[in-house]
Amino acid sequence: MNTHTSGPREGRTGTGARVLRVHPDGTASPGSRTFGLVLIVALVAFGAFALVLSPADSGAQASENEMGQLVRIMYVHVPVAIASYLAFLVTAVGSIAYLWKKTEGWDLLAAASAEVGVVFTGLTLATGSIWGHIAWGTWWEWDARLTSTLLLFVMYLGYLALRRAVLDPVVRAKRSAVVGLVAFVNVPIVHYSVDWWRSLHQTATISRFDPTIDGLKLFALLFGMVVVQALYVWLMIHRFRLQFAEARLESKGLDVALAERRAEAAADTTSPLVGAPKGTN
Amino acid sequence: MTAADAARGPSGSVTTMLRDASLVLAKDLRLEWRSRVIVSQVVPFAVLVLVLFAFALDPDRRTLTEATPGLFWLAVLFSTLLALQRAFGVEAADGVTDALRLSGLDPAGIFLGKAAGIAVHLLALQVVLGLGVTLFYGATPHGPVLLVCTCLAATAGLAAVGSLYGVLAAGMRVRDTLLPLLLLPVVAPVLIAATEAFAAAYDRSSGEGWRWFGLLAVFALLYLAMGIFAFEPLLEES
């Protein structure tokens, strides 16, 4: 470890120590606990609206497509998909800001958001696949949006794998910032290429202005949007604090090791040959 | 670096970049000329992949002919991984990366030089593979201009993003397993576009093919620009 990497980090151990002292038992704070409680209540209410209170898609009205109970999976699928795009956008912003500012926080933000984004993308693929199995009769269809989402999923799995593989925090931050940027720039290219390659997905329901869903169903969908984005924020708070604590632990381990070596050297002062404390700095 | 920057001045930076690129390219080509790793290992591997595809798909000529564009570009992609590992393996040994960094060469020039070296290797490989699919699969192309343009654009894109990821994974213990996972999803659009453009060239319906060529060109330009921008922080590290 050279002085270039350890210098700024030691400078910020003050704030790190404070964060850890305020929350000795984990990554929660009074604010995030309250937020979490509100979120639980909102999730229960969302479940009630999505699963019980909103009507099934019976096909009785002109706007309905006879999807029956199947329509309910949309209340999860669409918000989770949007949250995953949001997460990858945050990763890209964090990556660019890291390359620009070179401060640790941006790197940790990008990392935390990529983790949450991969989970949400996995959920998007799973719910979409279940929907497709019933609506189209196949678990997988080589349709444009499914395929590009799958590629997105694999790209960010690679991003997380890279983060696991590099040990030095500064090297890891630089390399993963470049990958986070490349992966995000690649999203439109993947989208267009796969879109031209083949397209049979039904047109997006929510972006059309003639509302084909209305009343309680529309409310359940919009409520789901709010709840899932709030869930993303809550997960991000905790993942970010965890990343921060991990980084502190890494540098603390280094400090402890350095202190031990210095103590050893100091204990050896009886021997005139070892003037070591100067050397370790 | 700072002395070189000062000496270079704002006007000469592009010529310096290109001069440094040609130096790195010449170094890599000289290395290949002496070691012949690409010629004696990667090219035979690519031909072997063509033969294995025939085993997997039953050497019924029609299946193979129909699948020729895709199989050609899959073989190119797999060989690209090997060529990249070779190109950055030689940099990882004996502290060559540090030497390059200390040499005062423009990082963007190093990037372009590495990319150009890989592109030359890949183009040579594609000539052999093109003969291979004609010989083994009986596929005869009809649109030579589209074919050549597709090869050039796709190769530029593969070399650009490959060099960027190659230096990124260089020097890591898990390089050989990580590089394919990182690279293949990113170059998936190249596989799709080049395959479609080739299919148009083999079917004499080259009108659609030029749209795919456009996508390949955009991909190549985008990643060349990103490499020029992002190579410096990657080279500077640790």
- Gap between N and C termini of chain B, in Å? 16 Å
Give unreliable regions of chain A as ranges: 1-14, 200-211, 274-281
- Would you tell me the overall average pLDDT of chain B? 85
Q: What form of chain B results from the Cα inertia axes? A: globular
Instruction: Please state the structural category of chain A.
Output: mainly alpha
Number of helices of chain B: 10
Radius of gyration of chain B: 19 Å
Order of helices and strands of chain A: HHHHHHHHH
Could you please describe the fold and organization of this structure?
The complex is a heterodimer of chains A (281) and B (238). With 281 residues, chain A is mainly α. Chain A has nine helices and no strands. Chain A has helices at residues 3-11, 13-22, 30-53, 73-101, 104-135, 144-165, 169-197, 215-267, 277-280. In chain A, α3 packs antiparallel against α8, α5 (104-135) runs antiparallel to α8 and α6 runs antiparallel to α7 (169-197). Chain A is globular and about 85 Å long. Chain A starts with a helix and ends with a helix. The model of chain A is unreliable at 1-14, 200-211 and 274-281 (pLDDT under 50). By secondary structure, chain B is mainly alpha-helical. Helices cover 86% and strands 0% of the residues of chain B. Chain B is built from ten helices and no strands. Chain B has helices spanning 2-8, 13-35, 37-57, 61-92, 96-102, 107-136, 144-169, 175-186, 188-202, 206-236. In chain B, α7 (144-169) crosses α8. Chain B is globular and about 55 Å long. Chain A binds chain B through residues 2, 5, 99, 151, 154-155, 157-158, 161-162, 165-166, 168, 170-171, 174-175, 177-179, 181-183, 185-186, 189-190, 192-194, 196-197, and chain B through 161, 164-165, 168, 172-174, 178, 181-182, 185-186, 188-189, 192-193, 196, 211-212, 215, 218-219, 222-223, 226, 230, 233-234, 236-238.
